Amino acid sequence: MDGAFFFTSIAPVFDLTNLFFILIGAVSGILIGSIPGLTSTMGIALLIPFTYGMPIIPSVGMLLGIFCGAMYGGSVAAILIKTPGTPAAAATILDGFPMGQRGEAGRALSIALFSSFAGGMTGALIMTFLSPFISKLALRFGPAEFFSLAIFGLSVIISISGKSLVKGLITAFFGLLIATVGMDKTSAYLRFTKAPGFYEGIPFIPALIGLFAVSEVYANIEKLLTGNVIKTKISGVLPSFKDLKAIWRQVITGGFIGSFIGAIPGAGGDIAAFVSYSEAKRTSKHPEKFGTGVPEGIAAAESANNGCTGGAMIPLLSLGIPGDSNTAVLMGAFILQGFQPGPMLYVEHLDIVYAVFASIMVANLGMLIAGIAGVRLFARIISIERKLLIPAILVLSLVGSYAINHNMFDVYFALVMGLVGYLLQKFEFPLSPILLALILGPMSESNLRRFMQIDDGQFWRLFTKPICVVFITLALGSLVSSVINQRKIRKSG
Fold first, then answer.
1. Residues 214 and 397: beta-carbon distance below 8 Å
2. How does pLDDT run across 42-101, given as a tens digit for each residue?
3. Could you tell me the CA-to-CA distances from 233 to 78, 100, 103 in Å, in that order?
4. In terms of residue numbers, what domain contains 23?
5. Which of 34, 63, 136, 401 could disulfide-link 414, Cβ–Cβ 3.0 to 4.6 Å?
6. What is the mean pLDDT of residues 151-172?
7. Can you tell me the mean pLDDT for 401-425?
């Protein structure tokens, strides 16, 4: 790397005008991410037309600001109202919401903010210095490798099953079952129902909103008249030294996990967050405390999903292959500006590549600044009286469900899934395994089918592929350690 050329290339990023646009993007991203149903992909897509005619650096910088800001913004709703603002924040609920219910919403938000920033910077640094190596590794992923990755992800279910492994597995199998509803991806055969709303499968975002947000509304309806208020402690806008000492390992590990999973096309922050959470719980001396509101759980999830922002940019810039839906839309922004992502971008426009590296770092810094300014305001939301807060949550949830496809079917489905989630929680069944199954079920099924077609139905060939062997070994290790941890949890309980 030519140092002089590098610094010359990134210098325009620090122009005040460009910094302003990046900050605007970060603030917009936090607001978009904190509203259930309004994903970062939607935010980037909505703002792309406004970048037409703008220079490449401020336009891409603003969009990267939305990308990074929305990842943190998802944790705001997860911590305050038990609803992941974005799918990548689903794992944050496990410890973020319980901490908020203890009256420590400010603490939870500050831990999420710092972890998001540290994970995002880790991903940006890995993108800057290791993108050629990681992109070559990502090219080796085919159907067999994606299937084994999905199996590894599904092995995390035990870690997020709470105190009852049996109940966790029941909800996981329920999630896998409903994940098969809709049109078969290989034969186009409609399974279980011919209802038009299910042609593309279970509507994921409405299911997510229903399971967590609407179910919480149902659970709180009987408390509407009590006027209960949770008094929130806001001691600072950044984690205390004690919290930093507790979470630094999870922040570093989560940043690396997020970066490498994000670099795999088709994987995303939701998978990375659950894998990182499971790893943090597996290696913890006190796994029984996870799920009760511990800083380590929040840090593991948030550092991983933000690490994906840098990781997902690696295949986009190096190979011209989007790492996830966000970078697929970003690819359109590059093309709109007259730049084609891919290997030739490094040859013909290396200065733009370096500017993108710097922009994503500045975007994470902008997210940190905007988050610090908003932590106290966000934390006070939980102090609103229930008779005002619960209807507001319901309205936002239904609007978010409708906003995805502009379809009332999704609104009705969210209400039904809310009832399912309410009943499951009533009988102490965990909801997170359903969500993970909905994410990984279609991925594992479609890639297994493709692999079997390519390899003439010879399943044993899966064990001849090095990457598959690594993921399967990790899955087995995760299962064994998770079972051991579950025994510790039962004994402590």
1. yes
2. 778 777 777 777 888 888 889 889 888 888 888 888 888 787 777 788 889 889 988 888
3. 18, 9, 6
4. 3-492
5. 401
6. 79
7. 86
In this predicted model, what pLDDT tens digit does every residue of 440-476 receive, in sequence order?
Answer: 888 888 888 888 888 887 888 888 888 889 888 988 8
Question: Residue 215 CB: number of other CB atoms within 10 A?
Answer: 26
480 vs 173: CA distance, rounded Å: 19
The answer to whether 169 and 157 are in contact (CB under 8 A) is: yes
CB atoms within 10 A of CB 92: 33
CA-to-CA separations, 468 to 27, 147, 167, 181, 267, in angstroms, rounded: 40, 8, 29, 27, 15
Q: How many domains are contained in the chain?
A: 1
* CB contact set of 482 (below 8 Å; sequence gap of 6+): 155, 156, 158, 159, 278, 281, 282
Specify burial of residue 249 (Cβ count, 10 A radius: 0-12, 13-18, 19+): middle
Instruction: Give the position of tokens 């603490």.
Output: 107
pTM: 0.80
Q: Any idea of the CA torsion for 194, 196, 200, 204, to the nearest 10 degrees?
A: -110
Q: What is the mean pLDDT of the chain?
A: 81
Enumerate the β-bridge partners of residue 183.
Answer: 190
Burial class (CB in 10 A: 0-12, 13-18, 19+), 52: exposed
